[in-house]
Design goal:
The chain has 322 residues and is α/β, with parallel strands linked by helices. It is 36% helix and 14% strand. The strands form three sheets. It has an eight-stranded parallel barrel with strand order 3-4-5-6-7-8-9-10, surrounded by five helices. A two-stranded antiparallel ribbon has the order 1-2. Strands 11-12 form a two-stranded antiparallel sheet. The longest helix is centred in the last third of the chain and has 21 residues. The two termini are 24 Å apart. 42% of the residues are buried. The structure holds beta-D-glucopyranose. Beta-D-glucopyranose (BGC) binds next to loops.
């Protein structure tokens, strides 16, 4: 008799691991301005009930650790990350924790490299006993002075520091600059079967980031739409290239962020989200949507409800769990 498994057990497994169809819990432990916000069990429950099987937890460790060697992590902040991981594990979700918004490292890699590795050594030791469903992502969106060659130099000793206590845990490494998919060819990864490459996909920025004041350069004007045939083809072409790189190099790829700001019209956002997600699934790439809640969110904090059109575009087959 066929057994009806919970949905998360039915997703395909690639390279011996579950393929992640996840969501970011951004603007929590990664805040740039103001105190960080703990990840509530309600937020994790919302991701679980929506039908995602993984969460990416952006963490701004660098704002919560000593400046001097041995760069001790702030115990109270680290406990918030522990609690977030506990509730993610309780739900049976996969998790990715990263190093988010280390802006000083980007501005001055030489001054901060030792601290960056020191932070990872502590994080890796702290979570060494956690299950293999938790992955470490070394650095979100390397930028400024952290160009491809500087990043390639730094990622090797960081990877080695993590490997000391975590011989087989998945380590996720992004491209410089800015997790750009076009920069995959410049990424020099360690030879390690448990390393995954990661990129972000926000193309075209003129559509996904219209009205966003944090983007480098002038604010992109409102009013850009998306949905013409050539718009679809461009996304398909971009993601086919990512997939081709993955096959050629034998390295799994996670699209760790993709999403659109709520200043763009919802109908076009839904079309964009559905097409990007559909292509990622067709190509069997792992993905995490940016973001669970807020202005990019699949969840609307003003109503406390899911934006159902975006949720359907992301997980058409799922239906919310009870
Ligand atoms: C940043 C967010 C931003 C998002 C989309 C993320 O990497 O941390 O602050 O909203 O990208 O631009």
């Amino acid at each position: 008799m066929p057994v009806s498994l919970p949905l998360r057990h039915r997703w395909p497994v690639t390279s011996g691991r579950l393929r992640r169809r996840g969501v970011n819990l951004g603007n929590t432990l990664d805040t740039l301005a103001g105190p960080s916000r703990p990840v509530s069990t309600a937020l994790v429950a919302a991701a679980y009930r929506a039908g995602f099987n993984a969460v990416r937890l952006p963490v701004r460790w660098s704002a919560h650790a000593d400046r001097q060697f041995p760069f001790a992590l702030d115990a109270r902040f680290a406990a918030l990350v522990d609690e977030a991981l506990d509730s993610v594990e309780d739900r049976g979700l996969h998790a990715i924790i990263n190093m988010h918004h280390y802006t000083e490292l980007m501005a001055d890699p030489d001054v901060h490299a030792e601290r960056f590795i020191g932070l990872w050594r502590q994080i890796a030791t702290r979570y060494a006993a956690r299950p293999g469903s938790i992955a470490f992502e070394l650095l979100n969106e390397p930028n400024q002075a952290m160009d491809a060659s500087r990043w390639n130099q730094l990622l090797q000793p960081t990877w080695a520091a993590v490997r000391d206590a975590n011989p087989t845990r998945e380590i996720i490494i992004g491209t410089a600059p800015m997790n750009d998919p076009a920069a995959l060819e410049q990424l020099a990864l360690p030879r390690d079967p448990d390393v995954t490459a990661t990129v972000h996909y926000y193309e075209p920025m003129s559509f996904t980031h219209q009205g966003a004041d944090w983007v480098h350069g002038p604010v992109l004007p409102l009013g850009a739409s998306w949905g013409a045939r050539e718009d679809h083809l461009k996304v398909t072409d971009d993601l086919n290239r990512v997939h081709a790189w993955s096959l050629t190099h034998g390295v799994k790829v996670l699209v760790g962020e993709f999403g659109s700001y709520d200043r763009a019209p919802l109908q076009a956002r839904t079309a964009w989200t559905g097409h990007v997600r559909g292509e990622l699934d067709r190509l069997q790439l792992d993905w995490c949507y940016w973001n669970l809640t807020g202005d990019f969110g699949v969840h609307d904090p003003r109503t406390g409800r899911m934006r159902t059109s975006l949720l359907r575009a992301l997980l058409p087959e799922s239906g919310a769990r009870a």
